[in-house]
Amino acid sequence: MSVPEVRDRLRETYGRLFWDPHGAPLDELVLTVLSQSTNDRNRDVAYARLRERFPSWEAVRDAPVEEVEEAIRPGGISQVKSRRIQDILRALPEDLDLSFLRDAPLEDARAFLTGLPGVGRKTAACVLLFSYGRRDVPVDTHVGRVATRLGLLRAGAGSDEQHDELTRMTPRGEEIELHVNLLRHGRRTCHARRPRCAECVLLSLCPAGPGFLAAAP
Ligand code: SF4
């Protein structure tokens, strides 16, 4: 079983995603912080409120933290996230210009991002991939779970290994499609508890599927 086989079956189910990198790494960075421990809808509401409330990222950086917290409250754990966002903004260059991430050596760009407060591999990969189309496949909890059950990733692998391996296996230019479709599959079918293997398009490729089916009530 290979990544292209998985990609093809997921493509038949969820379609093929075409995405133009948006060139806004700071927006992506904040959005990814806001996405932690909440759903997409609440994340988007929190992000929209933040952008409405403050005219610039500099203004978010320099505001009293309580004001940032109030703006992003619909996104949950706003006390933690507001401090995290300001910590990141304050660790960036004064002009908040991250455009160097587009052309910097990939390892350097990634190291810069993961050196920011609270920023790990997944957030760095989201920023690099969605902003500039750079080669990195974000592995969140859903992507990691599905890829591990499929045997693409080693059980117990850490975040660095998961990202490095999945990126290495993914055909060039298909990083976003694979990330998004594995994520969709994790949310809709390959649930953490009680995966719906009987109706899964990947069942014949999946080494974990028969075990789940046999254990099903
Ligand atoms: S067969 Fe089951 S465990 Fe394997 S990917 Fe599908 S839902 Fe997940």
Q: How many individual β-strands?
A: 0
* Biggest β-sheet description: none
Helix content: 55-70%
CATH architect. name of the largest domain = Orthogonal Bundle
Describe the structure.
The chain has 217 residues and is mainly α. It has 2 domains: 3-18 and 138-205, Endonuclease Iii, domain 2 (Orthogonal Bundle); 25-132, Endonuclease III, domain 1. 58% of the residues lie in helices and 0% in strands. It is built from 12 helices and no strands. The chain has helices at residues 3-14, 25-34, 40-53, 57-62, 65-71, 78-91, 106-114, 121-132, 141-149, 159-169, 175-188, 209-215. α1 (3-14) packs across α11 (175-188), α7 packs across α8 and α9 crosses α11. Iron/sulfur cluster is lined by residues 146, 149-150, 189-190, 195-197, 200, 202-203, 206, 208-209, 212.
Q: Can you give keywords for this protein?
A:
0% strand; 2 domains; Endonuclease III, domain 1; 58% helix; Endonuclease Iii, domain 2; mainly alpha; binds iron/sulfur cluster; 217 residues
Quick structural gist:
By secondary structure, this protein is mainly alpha-helical.
How do the strands and helices of this protein lay out in sequence?
Elements: H1 3-14, H2 25-34, H3 40-53, H4 57-62, H5 65-71, H6 78-91, H7 106-114, H8 121-132, H9 141-149, H10 159-169, H11 175-188, H12 209-215
Helix pairs in contact: 1-11, 2-8, 5-6, 7-8, 9-11
Bound molecules: iron/sulfur cluster.
